[in-house]
Amino acid sequence: MDANRPTIWAEIYSNLQRIIYTDAQWTYNVTKLTFGSDGLSTNSGLEGVFLKTTYQGVPALKIMKNLASKDNQDNDIIYLDCAFKVAGIDDRAQSSITVGIGRASADVYKGTIQPVNDGGYVIKKVNSSIQVRGGLLFGGAKVNDADYTVEWKKQLNGSLVPLTDDTGSNVSDTSNHTITITNSMVNSALNLYAIFKDKNGKELTSDVQGIIDASDPLSIKLNAVPADEVIVNDDDTVVYTPNVVNSDGQVMTEFSNKFLFLLSNEQGEKITGAYDNSTVPTSSQTITAADVDKAEPGALIVEIIADDTL
What we know:
By secondary structure, the chain is mostly beta strands. Helices cover about 0% and strands about 45% of the residues.
């Protein structure tokens, strides 16, 4: 069904207010997408693969056909460049998302953390919440909810610990594997992990998803170079030189040079980077291709901790 096709859009906030962006320019890997009057992509070899549409009041991109094929079995990257206006000033923002593609046999489990009711992964208001669900596939077919459980965890100071609710109690799985995430459970940003297990407690697979609290008065601005945080070649790097900013975008100087950078794979296992800044506070972190390789077959997870008491 068309409603179930993957849809990509961005969330932009300023002073805790959602910004409506315009003039969305989409790029698939290195190809800038063009569209016909029906909204479908017209690039050679990509005809009808993408649909230019709107979602929650902003420009969005819907994937209409399979991206994976016998000739395309590596990850793809979709880039967004868009315009917005804040306090009468015109500006542009860029972001990207990686579409994971890889070989899988028919007897492989795949678990994903899914947003519920179009809530996305962003908590937008104070005293608000979102819901997420742990969905499991086996060989591409949906596994019945009764046939598996989900153990919910979070990344804290480089380690996986149980996800806790507002009262400090561990979050338990539910019959449909849906849980509620509130503001108080997210410290600006949260790396949420779902560990999928069969009815006997055997681990099947796992997934990780970032949750953002846009209502938090303080947040970390990554200042990544390159901005898309993508490493392609062996000599490529990504450098983070973060700042802590308040809801007005002002840099909180008391956090300068007081960042820890903790690396892990999608299973929550710690990774020691080529430049290890996990114990001594510093101002920046360089990620190398070798660091990314250590996290395979999944993605490299970078947890950034800002602590003005360090």
